[in-house]
Amino acid sequence: MFRAGGTVFGADGEDIRELIPLGEITRLPGAPAFVRGLINVRGTIVTILDLGVRLDPSAEPAAEGSILLVRHRDRLVGVVVDEVADVRQLEVDPSGASKAAGDLVRGVATLDGAPVVVLDLAALIRQVLLS
Fold first, then answer.
1. pTM
2. CATH code linked to domain 2-130
3. Which of 2, 36, 48, 69 has a CA-to-CA distance to 59 between 20 and 30 Å?
4. Residue 81 in contact with residue 65, Cβ under 8 Å?
5. How many angstroms separate the CA atoms of 123 and 120, rounded?
6. Distance CA 13, CA 95 (A)
7. 63-100: per-residue pLDDT in tens?
């Protein structure tokens, strides 16, 4: 589970390859605000997306946090989150998914009485790379 923009999210652990600390990112001129830029991870250039800004364009980019490295086809893409909270198995209710969310939401789970929005990180990355 992770937090971005004040909301708790979850994702399939199989989607996440690695977790690294948020560091210096080289900005791409002309890129949308949610595309933070590029970093070098052991010789591989990785595009970095800011989840909080992607979901709420008026949000400030995360100044601290972590990067979830996600493999998408033959490349790595990083997703900036404010905080990584825990790794747990969740029972996801797919009826919580919304077509309005553009297929980004797999469903909703409940943890300790609080809702956890379970994202499809691959769909998020696909959506961004095709836009």
1. 0.85
2. 2.40.50.180
3. 69
4. yes
5. 5
6. 20
7. 899 999 998 888 899 999 999 987 877 777 777 565 44
